[in-house]
Amino acid sequence: MKKLLLSAATLAFAATGALAQDVVRLGTEGAYPPYNYIDESNELVGFEIDLGNALCERAGLTCEWVQNDWDSIIPNLVGGNYDAIMAGMNATPERAEVIMFSDPYKLPDPSAYMALAGTDTSVMEEGVIAAQSNTMQSGMVADTSATLIEFPTADETIAAVRNGTADAVLADRDFLMTYVDESGGELEFLATVPSPGAGVSIGLRQSDTELQATFNAALDEMKADGSLNEMLVQWFGDEVPQFE
Asked: Which residues contact 88 (CB under 8 A, 6 or more apart)?
């Protein structure tokens, strides 16, 4: 996976914590259903939007959403454009060198290869594989003998498979499931593979320990009363791993 290189000056940003502000700003991509996306009414919706709003309500925080491209989502957190990231981000050791994470709100997602129906599984090692840039999956493909082709958005990786630019795409299985289900047999999974990381979590600046504790306390409440599991099932179906 590509390393995220940030200047020392950028890392030193924000002497005051996010909780000192009137509004806590939540950064998201808005292009990764069902986690976060723009609906037909041009509204930001998805699992993470519902969850983020619920966490803010429980924590007594006034929150607003900020849409940001995936490629710059961590630098813009550290640079102060928002105070937390909720964007389907897995808490990996590499990312934890730059930012810190809350407890997970979704257990680790397996990744999956998806291709046009009838594609031979040999393309996973010998073909051209599309992945969104700066994701776990781009690093996973880079570690194989396949040819990696990267795109700024997840939708572009799907288009690359459909138009023949790529033989397959590697991404979160839960993200790809919608495309497989709605393709009418055009697309299928080739294989499911484990992903690194502790689970999908809120990303925060390393200085914002108070905000981290606040979000963790609200997450603990939602795990204890079952409301987080209910939300997971609502957005991902009955087979989604749940918190005990």
From this structure: 29, 32, 35, 36, 48, 172, 175, 200
Question: By the 8 A CB rule, do 127 and 147 touch?
Answer: yes
Domains 23-108+197-236 and 111-193 share a fold: yes
Class of domain 23-108+197-236: alpha beta
Query: What CATH code is assigned to 111-193?
Result: 3.40.190.10
pLDDT at residue 10 in the model: 33
Task: Please provide the distance, in angstroms rounded to a whole number, between the alpha carbons at the two ends of the chain.
Answer: 31
pLDDT tens, 29-82? 999 999 999 999 999 999 999 999 999 999 999 999 999 999 999 999 999 999
Output the 3-class SS for 100-165: EEEEEEECCCCEEEEEECCCCCCHHHHCEEEEECCCHHHHHHHCCCCEEEEECCHHHHHHHHHCCC
